[in-house]
Each structure stands twice: as C-alpha cells, then as structure tokens.
Amino acid sequence: MKFITIRKMILSAACLSVVLSATITSAQPVQAATASVQASKTSAQKANAVVSYAQSLKGKVKYKFGVNNPSKLIFDCSSFTKFVFAKQGVNLKWGSVAQSKQGKYVSKSNLKKGDLIFFSVSKPGRINHVGIYMGNGKFIHNTTGKNVNGVVISNLSSYSKRYITARRVL
Fold first, then answer.
1. 116 and 35, same structural domain?
2. Is 141 annotated as catalytic?
3. Whether 77 is catalytic
4. Which DSSP state fits 42?
5. Which of 16, 26, 134, 144 holds its CA 20 to 30 A away from the CA of 73?
C-alpha cells in the first residue's frame, strides 16, 4: 500500500515538472517578442511616446526638490525625466548634472523632440534644472514657482539666458 502511494506521488511530481517546464518554455518566446517590439521602436516613436506621456502627467504631478516618489507622483525636475523616460526603457540617473553626462551632446540648433535640455535656474552657469524638448521651440518640465507646481510647457526662448546644454538619450 505504501509503495502505491509513493509511486503516485512520484508520478504527480513528474507530471507537475513537465507542466511547469512547458509553461516556462512557452513563456520565453512571448517575453522575447515583447522585448523585440520594444527594441524595434524608432527614436522618433520613442520621442513621441516620451513627450505624450509627459503631457499626460500635467495636473497630476507635484514638484518637490530632492524627491523621487513615483507612487505619489511627487518629483523634482530630474526624477520626473527619469520617470518619464523609464516608460520607454531608457534608464536615466537621478540628478540634472548626472543626466547631463548621459547620451550624446546635441547643439541647441540641432535639438529634436525627446532631447534633454539643461538650464541654470539658480546659480549662473551651473546645471540645476532639466526638461524635455518637445519641438517647435517648446519644452516640458516639472517645476515650481509663482502660481506653478508641477508639469508645465514653456518656451525655450524664455529660458535662453539660462540654457546650458542638451543631450540625446533616445
């Protein structure tokens, strides 16, 4: 009697092993296909997605210096860009100075949608703010100020004296 019970347990374990193995094996092509679709997006498609997602967060995100709290949508400028770009599989460091060293340099005259743009908003000549270029002379950023706390769209020309550099990470 004990022999039959042990035999049933061994057969059950073997069947479970086969089912689990088949599940894992069949899931791998799906995961690979998903990664392939993500990787096959062009830079322009990713830039459109980054800008669209950033725009969708207007009125939902709050600005707080030194904060990176995705669960409550409370960010400083660089944790906001980090959060938005992560949705497109781009890993940015936290901090505007750190982000200004990622990707490739882009001249102001060659800006494209999705480029990170860096400014000096408090100490002249020192990077301490970042935004996302949207095209047509506009950028989106998370900031605070008079009657503002959160994601806004600004004219780059209004920040021309504060502009420092840009980087392309897409």
1. no
2. yes
3. yes
4. -
5. 134
Same domain, 90 and 65: yes
Give the chain's residues under pLDDT 50: 3-37
Domain count, the chain: 2
* Partner residues linked to 152 by β-bridges: 141
Measured CA to CA in angstroms, residue 126 lies from 28, 81, 110, 129, 167 at distances of: 47, 19, 22, 9, 16
**Residue where the block lists tokens 């949608």:** 113
pTM score, whole prediction: 0.76
Residue whose C-alpha is closest to residue 149's, from 91, 68, 64 = 64
* Alpha-carbon torsion (86, 140, 123, 76), positive or negative: negative
Predicted confidence (pLDDT) per residue in 24-57, tens digit: 444 444 444 444 445 568 999 999 999 999 999 9
Contact 47/114 with Cβ under 8 angstroms?
A: yes
Q: Are residues 98 and 57 in the same domain?
A: yes
* One-letter identity of residue 27: A
In terms of residue numbers, what domain contains 62?
A: 41-168
Active-site entry in 46, 82, 113, 129: 129
Q: Which of these is catalytic: 46, 82, 141, 167?
A: 141
Among residues 77, 84, 116, 169, the one annotated as catalytic is: 77
Residues constituting the chain:
170
Q: What residues does 163 pair with on adjacent strands?
A: 119
